[in-house]
Design a protein that fits this description.
alpha/beta, four-stranded parallel β-sheet
Length: 340
């Protein structure tokens, strides 16, 4: 506006000179030109102001709620400053027994998306959908990621199968760098659908996150290469590391099922002890938030060493991003199983 004022003042001074030195018709022509110029300038200024205002409206960050710490971190990586993440399921809690409280439901209000792990991990989702209503989309990220079956190293007493017993789809898909890359793309697509004006930001964020996950995978492969192939057997209490084992060439050996509430009979424990002795397994690994007595019994009976605690669910207070969880687990496994 200051620029328009200065231009108008100069034009008016010029017109004053014209009135003194030229004819009336010439001055009238100048006056018309001046009025037209002022109208066009003001119009351009108004259009520019409206354009800036429109950009500010479209740049409003997208509000999403997260039901897993790993998804909260991934959402921030993909969305950058164009997403606001409300962490409902916070680090330190148990994803297998978590259920949103009334306070959590209140915190989700206003979110366009609620991010869930999927693969039937969150049994409360149908009730949550009813509580939130049709205006909020619950995105089950894991539903678009290929599943593997969860296995534990005991027999099925009903059918007499003396090999791995299957427990349905393993929900712990986040132990794979490739799956995390898939998840980044899934979030970018969902964010773009909810806020199309920021689609470029989300696509760029997903691409950058995927590049970091690829680097972590390459690093892990180099570290794991120091473990003899015959020693790549991962013994844990729960069937939580199947995706990791598939991606990095380990045989998973778990005593219990998927959940921490699962139990093992004395027969199951005996079978695991036999497997450890037969294959000369070097170490067994306890898990954060879940260290059942069964592992203590196995260690006592076999003399096998106990590795560092592994992070199974990505909810550890010390490691609740993919990078921190993944690097911790790889270092712990390599330290216990690599050649001495």
């Amino acid at each position: 506006m200051q620029l328009i004022y200065e231009i108008s003042s100069r034009v008016l001074r010029f017109m004053s000179v014209c009135f003194e030195a030229t004819s009336f018709w010439c001055c009238l022509l100048v006056l018309n030109f001046t009025l037209l110029f002022l109208i066009m300038t003001r119009s351009l200024f108004l259009i520019f102001s409206l354009f800036i205002a429109a950009l500010n409206v479209h740049a409003e960050p997208l509000k999403v709620a997260s039901l897993h710490p790993l998804l909260a971190d991934l959402a921030r990586q993909v969305g950058g400053d164009q997403v606001v993440v409300v962490e409902i399921m916070k680090p330190g809690r148990d994803i297998h027994h978590f259920e949103p409280s009334p306070q959590d439901l209140a915190a989700m209000r206003g979110s366009r998306l609620v991010l869930a792990s999927g693969k039937e991990l969150e049994s409360f989702l149908p009730k949550l959908r009813d509580s939130l209503g049709a205006g909020v989309e619950i995105l089950e990220v894991g539903e678009k990621i290929p599943s593997i079956s969860a296995q534990c190293n005991h027999d099925d007493e009903e059918d007499g199968d003396d090999h791995h017993h299957h427990h349905g789809a393993d929900p712990h898909w986040w132990h794979s760098a490739e799956n995390m890359k898939r998840a980044a793309r899934i979030l970018a697509d969902a964010f773009s659908a909810a806020a199309p004006a920021n689609a470029d930001v989300y696509a760029s964020g997903a691409k950058a996150a995927s590049a970091r996950f690829s680097e972590l995978k390459s690093w892990a492969q180099k570290q794991i290469a120091t473990i003899p192939r015959s020693d790549r057997k991962l013994v844990t209490a729960h069937a939580a590391f199947g995706y990791f084992c598939k991606e990095y060439g380990f045989e998973p050996i778990s005593v219990l099922g998927i959940g921490r509430g699962d139990d093992a009979s004395m027969k199951h424990i005996a079978e695991t002890i036999q497997t450890i002795r037969e294959y000369k397994v070097k170490a067994v690994f306890p898990e954060d938030q879940a260290n059942p007595k069964v592992l203590t019994e196995i260690v006592r009976s076999t003399g096998v060493k106990t590795g560092q605690v592994l992070i199974a669910d990505g909810t550890s207070l010390e490691a609740h991003t993919f990078e921190t969880m993944f690097t911790h687990n790889v270092k712990a496994i390599v330290a216990a199983l690599a050649g001495e």
